[in-house]
Amino acid sequence: MASEEINEDYPAEIHEYLSTFENSIGAVDEMLKTMMSVSRNELLQKLDPLEQAKVDLVSAYTLNSMFWVYLATQGVNPKEHPVKQELERIRVYMNRVKEIADKKKAGKLDRGAASRFVKNALWEPKPKNVSKVANKGKSKN
């Protein structure tokens, strides 16, 4: 990109930003080509339901984000467009899926083992008459 000439149609200060944007668009294009090369059914068959939900949510979020950018390039304020509510709705579902995934990763409590651990860790005083009998027996021998 450094060898490219700066176009006189726009200010020189934004050339680097435009170059970065062009690279990003190219990367998105490559990802879309890769994603479109495999059928959706083929892709989803290989995944568990939670992973399927993640793929669907990321796809929907990406598509709506790209539409947001399109609206901005057309001079429409995307903050006043229904796409904003759609992005928020998808974000809520993404958080719900994340919570479910975190619950799966969380350790399970074995109540029986925890109960035994606590019971054995607690100090229990010995009955008084047992200790006297034990002391008398030891002193005689």
- Mind summarizing the main beta sheet? none
Shape: elongated
Number of helices: 6
Radius of gyration: 32 Å
End-to-end CA span: 96 Å
Count of β-strands:
0
Low-confidence stretches: none
| Strand-pairing-aware structural class | mainly alpha
- Overall residue-averaged pLDDT value: 83
The portion of residues forming beta strands comes to: under 5%
Percent helix among the residues?
A: over 70%
Encode the helix/strand succession as letters: HHHHHH
Function: Plays a role in the recruitment of the exosome to pre-rRNA to mediate the 3'-5' end processing of the 5.8S rRNA.
Keywords: Cytoplasm, DNA-binding, Nucleus, RNA-binding, rRNA processing
Subunit structure: Monomer and homodimer.
GO biological process, one term: maturation of 5.8S rRNA
Overview of the molecule:
- Keywords: Cytoplasm, DNA-binding, Nucleus, RNA-binding, rRNA processing.
- One of its GO terms (molecular function) is RNA binding.
- It comes from Loxodonta africana.
- The protein has 141 residues and is mostly helical.
- Among the domains are: 13-46; 47-105.
- The protein has helices at residues 15-37, 40-45, 49-73, 83-105, 111-121, 128-140.
- The N and C termini lie far apart (96 Å).
- The mean pLDDT is 83.
Please render the helix and strand layout as text:
Blueprint: H1 15-37, H2 40-45, H3 49-73, H4 83-105, H5 111-121, H6 128-140
Helix pairs in contact: 3-4
Organism: Loxodonta africana (African elephant)
Protein name: Nuclear nucleic acid-binding protein C1D
GO biological process, one term: maturation of 5.8S rRNA
